[in-house]
Amino acid sequence: MPTYSYRCTECGNAFDIKQSFSDATLTECPACGGVLRKVFSPVGVTFNGGGFYRTDSRPAPKGSSESSGSSGSSSSSGSSSSTPAKTESKPAAAKPAASTTPKPAAS
Fold it and tell me: What is the phi/psi pair of residue 34, to 5°?
């Protein structure tokens, strides 16, 4: 059963209570009879294991053992000249929109 946090808007009394999903939300403070509000807090989520990060699905760079001994300046200048130039793709020509005038009803 989940635990919910409540706080009274009038007296500031705060407490936690275990409730089922089907239970109704509490509305009255047990201390003063004031109006209760649910308190929402961020949930800590930790993703463990493979497949959660962008680098998990990338293949190992080619020649990784060779590039580890080379300097960064020579590898960056060599990679820019060996990569093919990107080509721009142009969007297809837009077709004219169909007429939206209603057709007369058949009698």
Answer: -75, -175
